[in-house]
Design brief:
This protein is globular. It contains 3 helices and 8 strands. The protein has 143 residues and is α+β, with helices and mostly antiparallel strands. The model has no long low-confidence stretch (mean pLDDT 93). The protein has helices at residues 52-59, 67-71, 130-140; strands at residues 2-12, 18-30, 37-38, 40-46, 74-83, 88-99, 104-115, 118-127. The longest helix is centred in the C-terminal third of the chain and has 11 residues, at 130-140. 17% of the residues lie in helices and 54% in strands. Strands 1, 2, 3, 4, 5, 6, 7 and 8 form an 8-stranded antiparallel sheet that branches. The protein has one domain (2-140).
Length: 143
């Protein structure tokens, strides 16, 4: 199975003022181990129109950012694909977010369980530092 994340640089004025950079780390937990390990990188490519639904799914509810923000502003986005082994139960994305408008850094954690060979989002949360984000990820992996 393939799983995608995005490396994002976005500046937009309409519909709202945005200036952010986001970089992901992707972790996996298997059914048997329940420990977190980094996912294996498959490829990095330019963002394509077909990635729009995945982008909205990851960020529209937690960061209130969608593809409409991309198309109305300036952006540089890389789509990062990971190989996910068959025995994986949970996928955890941790995005380091640098918000230049608010001058804050924070961490977005998206958690997914594998259902019928697809990643289904089960939780999203924002944390002030990476330690809090990782602590949350370790708790989620036990689901």
């Amino acid at each position: 199975m393939k799983f995608v994340s995005f490396e994002v640089i976005l500046e937009s004025e309409i519909p709202k003022r945005i200036s952010i950079t986001m970089r992901p780390e992707v972790f996996i937990a298997t059914f048997s181990e329940k420990t977190l390990s980094k996912a294996d990188l498959h490829s990095v490519r330019n963002f394509e129109e077909s990635d729009a639904l995945s982008f909205d799914y990851k960020f529209s509810d937690s960061l209130l950012i969608s593809c409409s923000d991309l198309f109305s502003g300036k952006h540089s986005i890389k789509t990062i694909e990971y190989n996910i082994p068959d025995d994986v139960a949970i996928i955890i994305e941790i995005y380091e977010v640098n918000d230049r408008i608010s001058e804050k850094n924070y961490f977005l954690v998206n958690a997914y369980k594998i259902v019928d060979n697809k990643a289904e989002k089960i939780n999203a949360a924002i944390f002030k530092n990476k330690k809090e984000a990782l602590d949350f990820a370790y708790k989620i992996r036990k689901i």
